[in-house]
Amino acid sequence: MAKRDHFASKIGFILAAAGSAIGLGAIWKFPYMAGTNGGSVFVLLFIISTLLIGLPILLAEFVIGRKGQADAVTGLKKLAPGKKWFLIGWSGFVFSFIILSFYSVIGGWILSYLGRALLFKFNNEGEGYYADLFESIIANPWEILIGQAVFMILTIIIVRGGIKGGIERASRLMMPALLIFFIVLVIRSLTLDGAWEGVKFMFVPDWTYFNAQTMLLALGQAFFSLSVGVAGMMTYASYLPKDQRLGNSALSVSMLNIGISIMAGLVIFPAVFALGYSPNEGPGLVFIILPAVFEQLPFGAFFMLLFFILLLFATLTSSISMLEIVVSIGIKNAYDKRKSAAWIYGLMIFLVGIPSALSFGVFSDIKIFGKTFFDSADFITSSIGLPLGALMISIFAGYVLKKDETFTELNISSLSFNTWYFIVRYLAPVAIIVVFINALISAIQG
């Protein structure tokens, strides 16, 4: 029987974990959330929420994962024998499966845009062209299904290669490339005439937006962008040797996530303001407004191509972590079955994602409690699965694991440990419950 794989280096683990967190949450969702919620105040609250609540829960997942040294279900059974806490692992399996089923649809959209950028197929035919283009792409069943299938195949190929040969190798390539591409795009955006208005929008506070709703949205974004709550970070940490310091790794991942989110804002908002667009365009900011912005720049076709390559890399680094959760639980200790399991589960996820892919065309009239298949999958995972998973992880780390063993596992100072322990036991659960209730109320009212 094949042996359990491990990350070859600390930097490989950090890049893989950061890649799991830095996906559409940082590059697609963060800019439009900031744009529709006052910019700078939302950015400030997001940073505070990430460091004060998100980071401790991320560290809790790291502790549980490395102590378990197995897939999420098996590891939790080892840490709490005879108890039902292993259901956290199975919930991670289910919600990761569902997330990837619609996440791969967005991956297909990105591939459609990337293909057009490579072939210089963007031909602006007047006002509303990019909005019409986006609508036509997502409503075209064959284009979307082919894009979704190609995206899933790319994800499967990486995961079937294992930890060192697949996930770590891909992360070592894509994450540095992503950072380099971002730096190039940030520099280009900041050199536009009028770019300073976008910078002020991000960093000069407009305190009229400082309210409970913005605080809750920022906290929810911190959970979403760090990928806590679905056992992904727990799974990655299970491949870590005991000599690596978890605190430093968690802080590095959190800071990278914050940094990439801010860089995404610095790519988008200076360009949006410089060229006369509104920052509060919502989810269409990346797919509708940004192409129109790039079109007006010198060498705009090149920068548009660069951006969609970057977006594809970020989306893939997250998708491989979700498939890895499913595969690791599915094969348990039969590591020699990884390759076939990656294809089997990847195909199943693709099939389950077909209704989400067709939600904007063929299945647009089919609703579940007033939501399309795509929106239902998003709501079930983002508003229910992630918060509940994060809550259970926080409770498990704070009340089930033995305090002295956790202190030894973390290998940090007493002051840092006691601060983390207080947050995980008391502050984080309350914050998660508040976010969860707010999300449900918003969904009912909406």
UniProtKB/TrEMBL annotation:
Keyword entries, A-Z: Membrane, Transmembrane, Transmembrane helix, Transport
Membrane topology: Multi-pass membrane protein
InterPro entries for the chain: Na/ntran_symport, SNS_sf, YocR/YhdH-like
Pfam entry (one): SNF
GO CC annotations, alphabetized: membrane
Record field: transmembrane: 7-28, 40-64, 85-111, 144-163, 175-196, 216-239, 251-277, 297-330, 342-363, 383-401, 422-444
Subcellular location: Membrane
Membrane recorded as keyword: yes
NCBIfam families, A to Z: Na_transp (NF037979)
Protein name listed in UniProt: Sodium-dependent transporter
Organism: Paenisporosarcina antarctica
Native organism taxonomy: Bacteria, Bacillati, Bacillota, Bacilli, Bacillales
